[in-house]
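Can you make up a protein sequence with its C-alpha cells?

===
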Amino acid sequence: MSSDGEKLFEFGHAIGSATNNIAEYRALEHALRWVNHYSEIGSSASGLIIHSDSELLVRQMTGKYKVKSQNLKPLVEMVRKLMDGLPFSVRFVHIPRSENREADRLANLGFAAQ
C-alpha cells in the first residue's frame, strides 16, 4: 500500500508442488521484482515495508533465524540480491495469520489455479 493507504499491487498464482515456505519466498520474490520493475514508484519511495504472516520468512530476513533448509537457501540469496538492488530500505513486519485474511484470500487464488 502507498503511504495514503492505496493498494498498489496484489497477485496470486499457482507455483506447482512446493512447501508453504517456498511459496512465501516466491511471493516475496515476485513483489520485489514488481517494485524493481515499476521504478517510478521505487524512485520516490523512502522505504518498503513487507507484511507477512510467515514468521519464518520475517525472522530469516531480519537475521533472527539462520536459513538451514537447503531448499530455501537459493531463494533467500536471490531475494537478498533483489533487496540490495533497491534504492531504499526494506523492513519486515510479522502479521499473525489470524489477522491476515487478505493473504489467505490470495493464497487460495493460487490453489484454485492449479
